[in-house]
């Protein structure tokens, strides 16, 4: 812990900012200073936006998306193809696919991928709920939009086996996804192509 | 503006986070998601810390430091050598010198450097107040801890001229500071050495 120069309030703010992904201790200090200098233009609005988000953001009971309404905006959108469920590991992946305008369907957020080394098993993910949704008569296709990593592909195979008795086509993203790559870092064109060229498993 | 997927509250939060130095639009989304997932451990404390900082942080009327008290912690510390004033362009530089434990004196924050190209003249900086402080009988030395850039050195020469009639020794940081470098990015050893080897102008 460096020497405190500016009182405990600022040190506390710096410590908390440093916990954000992408900000280390030094950039957290710069961010804190920037906030203090832009008190009216940035610090006050950010404080209010955080408070509003904290009070209103919830997890969608259907798909696991994060939104201020439950069911979420995606699940209640009547213009989406409700016969297709896109399975993602994380909300960040859902956001990435939406930014790419890659698909206009429903989602299902697993909350991670199977990872024996990290002790993450099927009971830690939202897999039962997915199987249940896949058995609804309206659902015709489940797209497994998972990372092209060992854990992602292990999870894809596990889910494919579970959906064997459901009346759905199970597809995965095309091999446009770089091996070892993570969805959230891909450009939008690659994501769109990977959705278009999805192949049956 | 990418397609909104998660309601206006989250989009607003992402927009504001993206204005922090060090966070772009993509890392702001990751930061927002991290905050939402860590609602109790991080989002609530950060909201409160921002609110507290916003309400309590002020600018020191003597030196220009940012603190929750005025005069600031540095100016009211009886253990500091009040015969030495370290002149810095920005509060970030003050913090950097303090982190390095480079000097145990008072500071004076100019609020920038002279920059004819950017239209920043003496009237835009806290220079009159510095000259006034330098004429106090207790003050014996003014250390110009300014960036080794053209603007920083122009400012140093301008201040040196103004202090000609004051009964103080004007020094600058040793040339340990890399040419073109900015104080806030230097390691602590370099900053300490630069303070130790300061030379008369
Ligand atoms: Zn939903
Ligand atoms: Zn002060």
UniProtKB/TrEMBL annotation, chains A, B:
- Fetch the Pfam families from UniProt: RecR_C (PF21175), RecR_HhH (PF21176), Toprim_4 (PF13662)
Which GO molecular-function terms appear in the entry? DNA binding; zinc ion binding
Q: Which residues form a coiled coil?
A: none
**DNA damage as UniProt keyword:** yes
Enumerate the residue ranges forming zinc fingers (C4-type).
Answer: 60-75
Alphabetically sorted, this entry's keywords are: DNA damage, DNA recombination, DNA repair, Metal-binding, Zinc, Zinc-finger
CDD domains for this protein? TOPRIM_recR
GO BP: any one term: DNA repair
Matching entries from SMART domains are given as: TOPRIM (SM00493)
* Listed PANTHER family: RECOMBINATION PROTEIN RECR (PTHR30446)
Family, according to the entry, reads as follows: Belongs to the RecR family.
What is the documented function of this protein? May play a role in DNA repair. It seems to be involved in an RecBC-independent recombinational process of DNA repair. It may act with RecF and RecO.
What's this protein's name?
A: Recombination protein RecR
Gene (name only): recR
């Amino acid at each position: 812990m460096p020497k405190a120069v500016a009182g405990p309030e600022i040190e506390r703010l710096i410590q908390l900012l440093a916990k954000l992904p992408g900000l280390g201790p030094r950039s957290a200090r710069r961010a804190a200073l920037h906030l203090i200098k832009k008190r009216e233009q940035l610090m006050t609005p950010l404080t209010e936006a955080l408070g509003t988000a904290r009070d209103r953001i919830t997890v969608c009971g259907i798909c696991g998306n994060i939104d201020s309404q439950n069911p979420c905006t995606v699940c209640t959108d009547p213009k989406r193809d409700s016969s297709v469920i896109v399975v993602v590991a994380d909300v960040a992946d859902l956001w990435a696919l939406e930014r790419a305008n890659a698909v206009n369907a429903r989602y299902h957020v697993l909350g991670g991928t199977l990872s024996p080394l990290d002790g993450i098993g099927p009971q830690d993910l939202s897999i039962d709920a997915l199987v249940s949704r896949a058995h609804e008569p309206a659902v015709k296709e489940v797209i497994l939009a998972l990372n092209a990593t060992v854990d992602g592909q292990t999870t894809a195979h596990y889910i494919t086996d579970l959906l064997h008795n459901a009346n759905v086509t199970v597809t995965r993203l095309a091999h446009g996804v770089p091996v070892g790559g993570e969805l959230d870092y891909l450009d939008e064109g690659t994501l769109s192509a990977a959705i278009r060229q999805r192949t049956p498993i």
